[in-house]
């Protein structure tokens, strides 16, 4: 046996006290380091190479800003809010991430999935408050006159007065819900950063995230169809929204607005064609084509001069105010209503941001700090919530555009924010006549990447069937139930898959590879030679309470011997023999002589004298696992079969020692534990 190193005992109490003293002490140097770490811009901005970086940052910032404006206006449909709030969100998120983010290339701002999750909460609360979810409904409380003669408006008045001003109408209540939700999500993210709970993101596997994104994309697509064809149906709310919406669409398909249908068809063709050309010739283009902006400008001009709203009743964006609304503290009463909804929003926002940051950092050879990213995203939600903004996250499409257009640092984010500010201050009213079907087209075309995941299903299935099943379950639950439930179902199902795989792992009997000291599964490989009188059993998982029974069943099945049944059979046979001997009968129950009895006591099916358990795949043992190994050691010993363990890692050996597997003084340890299968087999042969 190799000798284990003796580790020095650590006084955990003293270590904890030392850490507390260090963390609680405050010196000028430590305070400076804290500020520099909390605002990374203070470290990299003084070292900014203006001549080298400025052109790429300005170009990427302008391109992202041009893309951001139409997307922000379009995603307001998803969030159930007015376009001005989406522009606020895009402006503040870029400024705050510039100050606090550690990634040089990530584009943080409005994101379709986050907008959808915000919109679902807003719709639910509006419905509970008694507001009509129809976009073209007549003005409710505070939007016009104070009407409380109808039951709907009376309900709205009574519910909203507790949390908000009595004169707050539908739009005011909607942004109040969104800002409260955003504030709570940001607080969650900051708390997760303080308590270093970033490991939560590990439970969102790639399959879960892809399935969630695809399922949410189907929900987004479904929500935009009514704008594409210009029908007026209520916004579905609750579980099964996708199915209910499609039923309502087909019921009202006869009311489709021909003007919106034609406009949508033209816009989708133009956008898809431009995207495909951009993908095909991206190596020749210095920056992406601003197709969305061109489509919005042309469509707005056509709608304005063609009077599509007045003549054909085409739904338009309406008035977008300029400037900034005075800041307002999110309502505490509304925070309590949305506290649960904010948790999945906070986790999804953080996970997408960190995963994109790590992707960019790996590609461009620098490091990020995941904990600081948590703080950055958290404050990108907390601070803007006072300025009528809603939740943000990093967006994959804009991040890829940013890197492809020469971005070097987050200075590009400031340039993008300036473009949005220009629209906020001067250009917003020009989008009054922009048709909602054009915005829906922009949203749907932006979902191409997520919807293309369906094409990858066969390849995914070929690589890993379980991951494909996780993707399908998560995608189906996200689309057919709701996005939050879908995310929860995906996480739980993926964890169940891991548990099931450890509960029923692969087991095998090993045989020797010719003329080597290596052993492999004789069902998987040809021309292996079995070792006489020795069975080698491999269990490819940790041994713990959940798979104990499967371990024993697999062992008994593969060795073709259940020691408990065999021991019971022997006792029963011996009892019968004693009864015959007492009667003076010299023949056994089987009609054999006494001399032949000994042969009967040794069953013919036992064709081995040593069992070697390959523990190389057993990463840990719990108490049940140790007791299971002790049990088989005792049971096989009663049948004169020795049990040897091979390839145990140090933690497994420690568990066996603590559980008393090797006895009190570990004296027999070197005869029970071996560092290779071949050593155990050689020992078994020598014992014969």
Tally the helices: what do you get?
A: 28
Distance between the termini: 22 Å
Category by helix and strand content: mainly alpha
Mean pLDDT across every amino acid position:
86
The low-confidence parts are 137-163
Oligomer: single chain
Count of discrete domains: 2
The largest pleated sheet is described as:
7 strands, mixed
* Number of E-state strands: 9
Strand fraction equals: 5-15%
The 3D shape can be described as elongated
**What value does the Rg take, in angstroms?**
34 Å
Helix % is 55-70%
Key terms:
two-stranded antiparallel ribbon; single chain; seven-stranded mixed beta sheet; mainly alpha; 688 residues; Transcription Regulator spoIIAA; 2 domains
Can you describe this structure?
The chain is mainly alpha-helical and 688 residues long. It has helices spanning 12-24, 28-38, 41-44, 50-79, 83-100, 112-128, 151-163, 170-194, 206-229, 241-251, 258-280, 291-306, 308-312, 332-363, 370-385, 396-404, 411-427, 436-446, 448-451, 457-463, 465-480, 483-503, 548-559, 563-582, 594-601, 623-638, 650-658, 677-687, and strands spanning 108-109, 393-394, 507-513, 519-521, 528-529, 533-539, 608-614, 642-646, 673-674. It contains 28 helices and nine strands. Strands 3, 4, 5, 6, 7, 8 and 9 form a seven-stranded mixed beta sheet that branches. A two-stranded antiparallel ribbon has the order 1-2. The two termini are 22 Å apart. Keywords: Cell membrane, Glycoprotein, Membrane, Phosphoprotein, Transmembrane, Transmembrane helix, Transport. It catalyses: sulfate(out) + 2 chloride(in) = sulfate(in) + 2 chloride(out); iodide(in) + chloride(out) = iodide(out) + chloride(in); nitrate(in) + chloride(out) = nitrate(out) + chloride(in); bromide(in) + chloride(out) = bromide(out) + chloride(in). Its main location: membrane. This is Sulfate transporter.
């Amino acid at each position: 046996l190799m000798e284990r190193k003796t580790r020095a005992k650590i006084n955990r109490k003293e270590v904890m006290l030392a850490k507390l003293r260090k963390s609680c002490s405050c010196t000028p140097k430590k305070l400076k380091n804290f500020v520099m770490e909390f605002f990374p811009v203070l470290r990299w901005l003084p070292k900014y190479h203006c001549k080298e970086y400025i052109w790429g940052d300005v170009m990427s910032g302008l391109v992202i800003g041009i893309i951001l404006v139409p997307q922000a206006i379009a995603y307001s449909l998803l969030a159930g809010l007015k376009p001005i709030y989406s522009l606020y969100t895009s402006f503040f998120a870029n400024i705050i991430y510039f100050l606090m983010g550690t990634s040089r290339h990530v584009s943080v701002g409005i994101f379709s999935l986050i907008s959808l999750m915000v919109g679902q909460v807003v719709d639910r609360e509006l419905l509970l408050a008694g507001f009509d979810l129809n976009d073209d409904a007549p003005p409710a409380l505070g939007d016009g006159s104070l009407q409380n003669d109808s039951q709907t408006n009376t309900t709205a008045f009574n519910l909203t007065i507790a949390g908000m001003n009595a004169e707050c109408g539908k739009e005011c209540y909607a942004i109040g819900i969104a800002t409260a939700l955003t504030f709570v999500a940001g607080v969650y993210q900051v708390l997760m950063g303080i308590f270093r709970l970033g490991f939560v993101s590990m439970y969102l596997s790639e399959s879960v995230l892809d399935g969630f994104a695809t399922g949410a994309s189907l929900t987004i697509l479904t929500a935009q169809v009514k704008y594409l064809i210009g029908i007026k149906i209520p916004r579905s709310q609750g579980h099964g929204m996708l199915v209910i919406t499609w039923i309502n669409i087909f019921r009202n398909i006869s009311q489709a607005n021909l003007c919106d249908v034609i406009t949508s068809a033209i816009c989708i063709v133009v956008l898809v064609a431009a995207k495909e050309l951009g993908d095909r010739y991206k190596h020749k283009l210095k920056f992406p084509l601003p197709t969305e902006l061109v489509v919005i400008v042309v469509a707005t001009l056509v709608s304005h001069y063609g009077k599509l709203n007045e003549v054909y009743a085409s739904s338009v964006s309406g008035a977008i105010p300029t400037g900034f609304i005075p800041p307002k503290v999110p309502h505490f009463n509304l925070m309590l209503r949305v506290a649960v909804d904010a948790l999945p929003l906070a986790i999804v926002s953080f996970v997408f941001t960190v995963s994109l940051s790590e992707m960019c950092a790996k590609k461009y050879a620098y490091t990020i700090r995941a904990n600081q990213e948590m703080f950055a995203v958290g404050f990108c939600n907390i601070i803007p919530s006072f300025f009528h903004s809603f939740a943000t996250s990093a967006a994959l499409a804009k991040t890829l555009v940013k890197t492809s257009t020469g971005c070097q640092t987050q200075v590009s984010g400031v340039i993008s924010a300036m473009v949005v500010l220009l629209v906020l201050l001067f250009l917003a009213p020009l989008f009054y006549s922009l048709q909602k079907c054009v915005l829906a087209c922009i949203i749907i075309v932006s979902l191409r990447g997520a919807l293309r995941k369906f094409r990858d299903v066969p390849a995914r299935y070929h690589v890993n069937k379980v991951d494909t099943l996780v993707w399908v379950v998560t995608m189906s639950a996200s689309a057919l139930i709701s996005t939050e439930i879908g995310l929860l179902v995906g996480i739980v199902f993926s964890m169940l898959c891991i548990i099931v795989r450890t509960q029923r792992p692969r087991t095998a009997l090993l045989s020797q590879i010719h003329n080597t000291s290596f052993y492999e599964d004789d069902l998987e490989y040809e021309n292996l030679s079995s070792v006489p009188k020795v069975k080698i059993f491999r269990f490819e998982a940790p041994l713990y309470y959940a798979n104990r029974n499967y371990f024993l069943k697999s062992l008994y099945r593969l060795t073709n011997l259940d020691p408990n049944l065999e021991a019971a059979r022997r006792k029963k046979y011996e009892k019968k023999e004693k009864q015959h001997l007492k009667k003076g009968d010299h023949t056994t129950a089987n009609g054999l002589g006494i001399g032949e009895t000994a042969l009967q006591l040794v069953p013919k099916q036992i064709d081995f004298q040593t069992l070697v358990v390959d523990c190389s795949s057993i990463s840990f043992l719990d108490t049940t696992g140790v007791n299971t190994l002790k049990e088989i050691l005792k049971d096989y010993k009663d049948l004169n079969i020795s049990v040897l363990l091979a390839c145990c890692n140090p933690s497994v050996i420690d568990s066996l020692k603590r559980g008393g597997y090797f006895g009190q003084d570990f004296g027999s340890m070197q005869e029970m534990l071996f560092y290779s299968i071949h050593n155990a087999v050689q020992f078994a042969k020598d014992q014969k």
